[in-house]
UniProtKB/TrEMBL annotation:
Gene Ontology terms, MF aspect: DNA binding
Domain named DUF5753: residues: 98-271
Protein name: Helix-turn-helix domain-containing protein
Pfam family, one: HTH_31
Organism lineage string: Bacteria, Bacillati, Actinomycetota, Actinomycetes, Pseudonocardiales
Record-linked InterPro entries: Cro/C1-type_HTH, DUF5753, Lambda_DNA-bd_dom_sf
Organism: Lentzea alba
Membrane-spanning ranges: none
Length: 278
């Protein structure tokens, strides 16, 4: 089949293929020699650009002794790589959409997060995250590892990429975990909001209806790939990188930014809430 540009489905397939190859302890060059493939084809495949034809993929997965369930998943991703978007349902304790989100976050150069009801995930304190996870559709036994995975996402909050957080004021007023957890979370936001690479903006309740009323979303931009939109639901995650869908969310970002408070005003909102908790 003809080579294709990388998209979110192709990269999900590529990540799975890379993991399969890693189990052989062979380099891509050596694997290409063993299977009589072109090394460039394998490189393109693991980078989400197709590269290999269907038969070659089957041969490679068989050589890597990929378990049947994972082989079926990867072949399904391969077949759908030209379609729009990626829908992931969790199959074990840590939702698959969370793993995929973390992977894309690490590759991004810019992240824009709109949060209407809760503090954005990467800005949450561990205690806040624990209470949010407990209230979600997660089995009790799986809560600790899901919390750990969500907390680990905060490692990306370092210089090297830009973060913009657009947060509705009502999310700041929600006392998740009780007053002590709430207070610590607000104090954490103040500390994070002064970092040069973090732009934290509050959408005030006083504006009434707003462009983000349809729900939370995350827009990620990359050095080499098209922008990607992530939507999280109770039991699945949606990833979109087609131009039409991305344009809709980029418009939402512009509309929200137009009514958002500036950085100092946003910190003032947090200060006022904290003063009321004294």
């Amino acid at each position: 089949m003809p080579k294709r540009e990388s998209n979110v489905l192709g990269r999900e397939f590529g990540n799975g293929l890379r993991a399969a190859i890693a189990t052989t302890d062979l380099t891509q060059r050596r694997l290409a020699e063993v299977l009589d493939f072109d090394e460039a084809q394998i490189s393109e495949a693991v980078n989400g650009k197709r590269g290999l034809d269907e038969h070659q993929v089957e041969v490679l997965l068989a050589y890597c002794r990929v378990p049947l369930a994972e082989r079926r998943r990867l072949m399904s991703l391969y077949a759908e790589a030209g379609e729009k978007g990626l829908l992931l349902f969790p199959e074990d304790g840590v939702p698959d959409q969370l793993r995929t989100l973390i992977s894309h976050e690490k590759e991004s150069s810019e992240i824009i997060d709109w949060a209407m009801s809760l503090v954005p995930g990467v800005l949450q304190t561990p205690e806040y995250t624990h209470h949010v996870t407990e209230a979600g559709p997660i089995d009790k036994d799986d809560v600790p590892k899901v919390v750990a995975a969500r907390i680990a996402r905060a490692e990306i909050l370092r210089p090297g990429r830009t973060f913009t957080f657009l947060v509705h004021e009502q999310a700041l007023w929600l006392p998740v975990g009780g007053e002590d957890v709430w207070r610590d979370q607000l104090a954490h936001l103040l500390r994070m909001s002064v970092r040069a690479y973090i732009n934290f903006h509050v959408i005030p309740r006083s504006i009434g209806m707003h462009a983000g009323a349809a729900g939370d979303f995350r827009l990620m931009r990359f050095p080499k790939y098209p922008p990607l939109v992530f939507l999280d639901t109770l039991n699945c995650g949606l990833f979109f990188d087609d131009k039409e869908t991305v344009a809709l969310y980029e418009d939402r970002v512009k509309r929200l930014a137009a009514v958002a408070l500036d950085r100092e005003e946003s910190r003032g909102v947090i200060d006022n809430i904290l003063e009321g908790l004294q």
